[in-house]
Amino acid sequence: MASMLKLASMFRRQICMRRAAQRYFTRSFVTSSELQAQAHSPKPGDKVVIGMSGGVDSSVSAMLLANQDYDLSAVYMRNWDTRDESGTDKGCEWEKDWEDVQLVCKKLGLPCELIDLSKEYWTRVFEPSLRQWEVGVSPNPDVWCNREIKFGALLERLPINASSNQATWFATGHYASKGWSTSHETQYSRPKLLRPRDKNKDQTYFLSAISESGLRRALFPLANSTKPEVRELAKKYGLSTAERPDSVGICFVGERTRFGGFLSEYITPKPGPIVNKLTGEVIGEHEGLWNFTIGQNARVAGMKEKMFVVKKDAEKNAILVVPGSKHESLFSTVLNVPEFTWIWKDSPPHGIDSPEGATLELAHRYRMSPVKCVVRRYQDSPESQGSSMSLKIECQSPQQAVTPGQVAALWDGDWCLGSGIIESTS
Ligand SMILES: Nc1ncnc2c1ncn2[C@@H]1O[C@H](COP(=O)(O)OP(=O)(O)OP(=O)(O)O)[C@@H](O)[C@H]1O
């Protein structure tokens, strides 16, 4: 019975995805010269679009912007289709979100629009992530979702303001801030992605891969607000989303209590051995490398000690484990990031080519306290210069459970400089 349900669910999803692939629409694209003309902040009457998720953060952001004299509208992006084939729409998270967006927009008197980006999400975020999970790498779809979807596919569709010939501003409820750096010689200004006031909610890690041109048009109305203040404001102004819990789960796919189970609808099980790295002994079996992350308790039955995942060997399809969560092989000091992208692509920090390197701050997962590190460029091929580069990141202290596939982001103080995918550690 369980396998029949699973088959039915797989079939449903495939149809949903095929349907999504059939949807296609285009709007005006923005050229680089139009972006260069962008001012530091919107003027009265400028066109501003707020991305609304149905959550409290974007609702309050919309309210803060609605109090300004902008030409404001809202957009809800549907990026995942969970519609039931029978047409009952049961368990359809996006519809509830869209209803909430419409309720808040009605209250604020804002026009709102639903845009279907499920095809783009599937091809630009989910499918590449699936290929990574399959080979045992742990990707971070939320980072790619910001780059490819919110500050990618959506921005490409936002119209040019005909009267001012300015690109539309794009606001989100991210906890992040923005500043500008102006060259004395050319007077040309470049946008800086900065940490927000609420350091507990700081989302610059998730935004670390967006492009400079996307950042140029971004507005973060919650830059100076804390989460408790945001909830208070939502209550005070009677926004229907005031009490909505914070979103969890991967971007747009929604909440998934059993993430491994969810993935197994897309990836064929591939059983393999669980091996004690110290003895070489096979001590168990797994259903697929994607069910484990580095540093996780592998829950191997019949072992006296808890065994923790230290490596996923894609070639042998094996999970390597060690006893105890504090085993030395679970720690690493050096991270190799072969395609690091600086938000200012042509302007990497000073020192990365010197023997001393550049001293910066690293986060290799969301919400970790940033760690001091020394960053050096290595094995750079000429063609990769100017867009991405190979970095060796040496941490001041050993880091537990650094996971290949995860994003390593770098800051200079509060300034987020960019990010890249961790390939290996030592
Ligand atoms: N489906 C969506 N459509 C449009 N914009 C979205 C959507 N999902 C997220 N966003 C934008 O990205 C921001 C950050 O999204 P995230 O998923 O991290 O939610 P969050 O921090 O819990 O915010 P919120 O409370 O608004 O859901 C949102 O505040 C919103 O501006």
From TrEMBL:
Identify the residues that the record assigns to the tRNA-specific 2-thiouridylase MnmA-like C-terminal domain, covering every copy. Answer: 337-422
Q: Name one GO cellular component term.
A: mitochondrion
Gene3D superfamilies with a match to the protein in the record:
Adenine nucleotide alpha hydrolases-like domains, HUPs, Translation factors
- GO molecular function term, any single one: ATP binding
Domain tRNA-specific 2-thiouridylase MnmA-like central: from-to ranges? 262-322
- BP terms from Gene Ontology: tRNA wobble position uridine thiolation
Question: Which InterPro entries does UniProt cross-reference here?
Answer: MnmA-like, MnmA-like_C, MnmA-like_central, MnmA-like_central_sf, Rossmann-like_a/b/a_fold
Keyword Secreted carried by entry:
no
Entry's SUPFAM superfamilies? Adenine nucleotide alpha hydrolases-like (SSF52402)
Entry-linked Pfam families: tRNA_Me_trans, tRNA_Me_trans_C, tRNA_Me_trans_M
Provide this UniProt record's keywords sorted from A to Z: ATP-binding, Disulfide bond, Nucleotide-binding, RNA-binding, Transferase, tRNA processing, tRNA-binding
Catalysed conversion reaction:
5-taurinomethyluridine(34) in tRNA + S-sulfanyl-L-cysteinyl-[protein] + AH2 + ATP = 5-taurinomethyl-2-thiouridine(34) in tRNA + L-cysteinyl-[protein] + A + AMP + diphosphate + H(+)
For this protein, the Enzyme Commission number is: 2.8.1.14
Q: What does this protein do?
A: Catalyzes the 2-thiolation of uridine at the wobble position (U34) of mitochondrial tRNA(Lys), tRNA(Glu) and tRNA(Gln). Required for the formation of 5-taurinomethyl-2-thiouridine (tm5s2U) of mitochondrial tRNA(Lys), tRNA(Glu), and tRNA(Gln) at the wobble position. ATP is required to activate the C2 atom of the wobble base.
Q: Which family does it belong to?
A: Belongs to the MnmA/TRMU family.
UniProt xrefs under NCBIfam families: PRK00143.1, trmU
HAMAP family under this entry?
A: tRNA_thiouridyl_MnmA
List the protein's name: tRNA-5-taurinomethyluridine 2-sulfurtransferase
Which species is the source of this protein? Agrocybe pediades
